[in-house]
Structures are given as C-alpha cells and as structure tokens.
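Q: My collaborator sent me two sequences in one message, no labels, and asked for predicted structures for both. Can we handle them in order? The first one she listed is below.
A: Yes, handling them in the order given. First sequence, followed by its structure tokens:
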Amino acid sequence: MLAAIGKPREALRASVAHTLFNVGGVLLWLPLVGVLAAIVETIGGGIGREIANAHTIFNTINALLLIGFIPLFARLVQRLVKDRPEGVERVITARYLDKELLRTPTLALDRARLELLRMADRVRDMLGSILPALLTGDRWTLLDIESRDDEVDALHGQIIGYLGQISQTRLSEESTRELIDLMEATNDLEAIGDLIETNLVNLGLARMEEGLTVSPATRTVLTELHGAVAESLDLAMMALTQKNADAARRVGNMKKQINSMERSAAAHEATRLIADAPDRIAHYRFEIDVIAILKRIYYFSKRIARVSVPEAEKAAMTEE
C-alpha cells in the first residue's frame, strides 16, 4: 500500500506510476470494451462477479503488457517527478537561537521560547490542514502536509541542541526547571507533528486506497472534535510563550469537553457500525482511528500547557 511508503518523494513517484498505469490501461482498452464485456459475460457469476472479473482481467493484462517496458516506464516517472537537487529539500534555520546569549541563560531561554513558537506555527498549520485533506482531499495535498513535518523536525533538532547548550551553563533552580519544561514541550510539539505526518496522513492515503467516503454527519462530528483540539493547541502555545497560567488552566479544563465529544463521536460510529451499509467495518475503523489520534493530540497540548502552571498543578495536567 502507498500508505506504507515513508518518503514523500517516493510516495509521489508511486502515485504518478499508479495513475499512469491506470490511465494508459483505460486508453488501451477503449477500443476493446466490447471484447472485455463478452469475456466476463461468458465467465458469468452475476453482476458483482462480472465486475470483479473485469477488474482482474484489466489489471492482469495491463501488467503483462507493461513488463517489457518497465525501464522506459521508470524513466518516464523519474522525469515527471525529479529528485530535488542536494540542499533544495525543505530546510529551515532557527531565527532566535543566538549563541551569544548563552552567557545569560535567562535570555537564552526566552529565545528558545520564541523559536518554539515558530515550530508551533508549522505544527498548527499542519493540524489546520489535515482534517479536510484527511476526509475529502487528494493524495497530493496529503503528501504536501507530510512534507511540512521536515521543517518541524529541523526546528526540533535545533531547539533541543540549543537547550542542551544552555544546560551546560550555570543555572538557577528556577532556570533549570524552565529548561526541563521547555525540552519536554519541544518534544511534545514534535510528537504532535509526527502524529499528523505519520498517522493521520497515512489514514487519509488508506481512505483513498480503500475508496471510503465519509458521510456528512460523520464529517460534522469529526470537525467539531478537531476544532476543539486545535483550540487546545492554540491555548497551549499562548500559555507556553506568554507564561500564561490562565490559558494553561483552560487547556486542562477542556478535558471534560474533549472526553464528552470523544464519547459522542464513538457513539455515532457505533450506530454506523450496525447499519446495513457497504464497507461499514472499514469506515468504522478509519473514523475511530481519527478520533483516537485527535484525542492524543489534545493530550500532548495539555502537556505543553502544563509548563505554565505552578508545580502543584502540573501532575493533574499530565493525566490522560
């Protein structure tokens, strides 16, 4: 399955190859539609079996015809989806991590906080884009969202490296706690990016591979949950960058709302499961997985927000 392919460029090539194979096959069979229809009617088995047989014959003969042209086909795909020149991949450089400030750890920590906001902007952009792409978008949109995580990973590495340098300086007890909190928040934010890049993007690719169509009612349920989760991330970043304890508490207080929405969404999916509809099991698994991942993103938002509450409140903010 294409969803199992890790690198966006390889996935894009696989998608182009798949499209060319199908389009070329359709063009090849256009003048022979009558022949194909006669063959499947002769085999028989009812309309459902005839459709399946036509699909099998179509793919098998196309594959056999393609075997001798694989090198030419591969070169065509490579020409259409060229490798990016070295150094042209998505690379981003930290803007605020000034090494000169390492001699003043409190200022250096504030700079790390600013850089973390840049990282959060990219994660928030991914989160905002993923739901429409996941439910109704095309392969290209999903792969673009996947590729945006490259910048998130790059900033994560630079911020963690900078915080590591700060840790080598003489820190007060308060600055040490802040350093640890920022490291954990950086890792949590990167974890959200990974959930979007890997789990949600792959679910979207699988949805297209399996030909699933999400109903308007389900889209409404998922959109409401997604909106609440996105709000929790916005509040978490406000709490982190502005040291805003009230915003952090609002994230923690959203737990009941998120849990209630999760239960409502799960109940909705349960009614779908017992309905007499095609592919209901596949739809159920897809939609339940989306709900579980969105809930997981909220959990990481809550962990990020806890940086800004007093130590006595932090334990409650990390509970699932």
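Q: And the one she listed second?
A: Here it is, processed independently of the first:
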Amino acid sequence: MSTQRRPVTALVVLLAGGCGGGSSTTPASAESPRDSGSPTLGRDASGGRTGTTTTDAGFDAGATSDAAGDVAEVDAGGSEGGTSAASAARQTVLTFLAGIRGHRAAIGVEDKDSTQPHADSDQMASMAGNGQYPSFWSADWGFGGAVADRENIVQEGESQWAQGALVQYIYHACPPTEDESCEYSGGPAGTTDILGSSLTDAQWTDLVTPGGTLYQAWLGRLDTLATFFQQLKDAGVAPLFRPLHEMNGSWAWWQGRPGPGGSSKLYQITHDYLVSTKGLDNIVWVWNLQDYTTLAADVPLYNPGPDYFDIAALDVYDTGYTDGNYQAMLGGAAGKPIGVAECQLLPAPGTLTAQPLWTYFAMWPDFFSDDTTQIPALFDDPTVLTLSNMPGWK
C-alpha cells in the first residue's frame, strides 16, 4: 500500500489508493480474445440516469458452451444454493458475469461519499463526455460518521440495481476490539493500525475461534450489516460484497495473516454467518487481493477456497496490469470470473485485448485527474459496457 492513500472526512466513506501500473501486451492464455460482434440482448434504458441513452445493447452472452460451463463452475462455488427470488437474482448476476467473460467488461467507480452516493459516478459520466453512465456502482458500509449513512447507500443501491447496474458494497471495518466510531489514523505505510489498533496473535485466535469474545463481537457487527443486506434482499437486489479486502496487505487489522487460520478464515466465518445463519442468499461474494510483488505467492496463502467466493478481484495500484498478475488471479479464481475492484489507472484498450477475462473494473475516485484521457477512451470502447448497454435484472 502506497503512502499516496489518503484519508477523507469522517462523513465520507474512505479508502485510499496507491500507485498504479501500466498495461501488458502479452496475449492471455488460450481463451478467446475480447470482441465486439457477438449476439446481444437489448434493454430499454428509460429508467437510467439523465444523460444515459437507450440502445439495443452491448451485452454479450458469449458462446453458449463457454457460458454454460462458466455458470456451472460459478454456481458450484456459491454455497447458498437456494430457490428464493433473492437466490434467483444472485444467479442472474452470476450468469451475466459468465456471459460477458472474454467479451465485455463493466466499468465504474467507488462512490466514496456516503451522503451523496452517486456523486463519483456522476463525475465519471461527466468525464466520459458521451452521455453514458457507469455500469458498476459500489459503496462502503464504512466506519465513524459514515455508519449513520448506511440507509442512504442501501437506497442508492436499490436505485442503481433498478437501472441495471452491478451493485457492490465494501466494508472498512473497525477492529472488533472497539466500536464502529474508529477513525482513519493515517499511519505510515506498512503499519497495521490504519483502522484502529492492530490485533495481537492471541486476539486474532480469539476472533476466529467460535465462542471467543472477539468472535462474538464480530458476529454482532455482522448482525448489524445483515439488517441492511436483508433490505436489499427484500427489494430483490443481489449485491456483490467485498469484505476484508486486500487481505494480503499490511495497512489494516484484518490483513497480512496467511494460511488456514488467518485472514481467509475470518472471510469464511463472515460468509458462513451471513449466508447460513442470517439466510442472505442474495449476496455475490468477492474475494480480493492487491497487486503487490508477492501476488503469485499470496494467492494460495490467502485463498478461502472455491466454496466461499464467486468472483476473484484484484486491486491495481503497485505493479499494474502485468500478465503475471493476470495469470495469478486466473489461477486463484479456478474458472470463476475475475475483476479489477479498485485501480488508480484504468486498463488501456490493449490490456483488455491481451487480458480478455476481466469482467469489470472500477476506479478509486481520488485519481480521476490521473485518467482524464483514459475514461473517455474506455467509455467509447465497444467492448466496455456502459449503463445503457446493460441487459437489466428482471
């Protein structure tokens, strides 16, 4: 994590971004290259934001045999397996991602301001300059003052879903040793107390051991989040959820613990509690790492296992869109969709050609000024899905 990552005010949901990398021109494995001429499914985009246009859509279901195989793999990895309307919505998202895999990619940004949770998407659309709006929206359950805005981001998530966007939530969680009023401490790079105090080994063991004091505290935290996920479920929304992100990092309390009892164990606990205990079969689970130089070695050390995630996502700040990073994520994903969950710089069109299996990519909005030419270029790229190209979730 770079020292370029910077805090924001208490009422703005935060993460920070670091250094981004260039693009690779190395061809990607044996998969089909991304193309723009495959069969499409249309959607009337009349419910979209002002500025979006109604088109007959760039959604590509992909080759039938490939898509069917991908869906089977994705469905097997999600342990929800329900038949409710919420589970059906979740499967619709998974089918969509499998269908665009190798052909299209959604584009978006993390909307950091929980008081105006579409402001960054609005800015990206303005920078695109062609009347198109992002197809991927994300917000943060947050900490400190942002905790009071959770209902606000639920309502925005419902609105974005109704318009056809992919909807995601992340979670900058305070340590379970304190309440959710913790603050961004702004410590130097490499420290483990950016979100409150780091945990000792004994505290970590207590956290991941059923019946432990911190284990119960973490479940209490999840009980709170479950009320908001339930609202989304009741509204028919199947959101992506990216908890404990960048778990191979060293800047937050949940990170930097490799192996079966480490960061991935807490991810498994989080998944099982929300899915099995709280009955939230609408969530699409995202497992996330950052592009450190150690990524290839980190993938197996932090992997929670294929039963625990639906998407493997990379944050691109340090080493960039290298073929090594791409192959490492494909290996960890084991046939499931991959995405770029955060980045300083969006991938160049040549990167999308060389690495066709990214299904979405999202900027961190602190770096809009670094990408003033790339955003318009990608919003005009026929292989990039904007909101008016999305097929809708009904």
